[in-house]
Amino acid sequence: MTFSHWLPFAAIALGLVLTPGPNMIYLVSRSICQGHKAGLISLAGVALGFIFYMICAALGITALVMAVPFAYDALRIAGALYLLWLAWQSVRSGHSPFQLRTLKPDSPRKLFTMGLVTNLLNPKAAVLYLSLLPQFIDPSQGSVLTQSLTLGFSQIVISMLVNGAIIFTAGSIALFLSGRPLWQRVQRGLMATVLAGLAVRMVLDVRK
Prior knowledge:
Elements: H1 3-17, H2 22-34, H3 36-59, H4 61-67, H5 69-93, H6 108-120, H7 124-132, H8 144-178, H9 181-204
């Protein structure tokens, strides 16, 4: 695979990871609550979720999941319910995800598991690999499987680098908000609205 063939895919992958979503929200909130190390452990779980979907797509298994309405809908609804629960927690707790506070630390195992679950409950990850990768694969350039894995791992590396940077800058956002109560209330309401909006969009997102 040539660099000129890979570069457009990398640019699209970068644009996608910069779009706020459940993964980014969870990583930021966990980094603020428990520190950079906890954020990185959670990020490892997110990465494993991406690897799972990438391998499924490369082997053609994801196509089967997308072809079975019940399998797709069950995953989509479970993800939506999880997002609604996060939105409710954001409002009920009275705290902003960016607000500095002391919480009972989660174990590394739980951090990793929650990062994995957050990613696996978002069927858009599966759709991403199933719909995007084939557009950049050229059978004349060699093994289709090798090209799929190359593109998939490229997306994962880009996602990990960007999210890693976000984890280490989450504290700066928290410091900015800590002395501004109005900003905290606005941010908390905005966060709950975004989470609920993502959940509703996921529920209404009927397969074409």
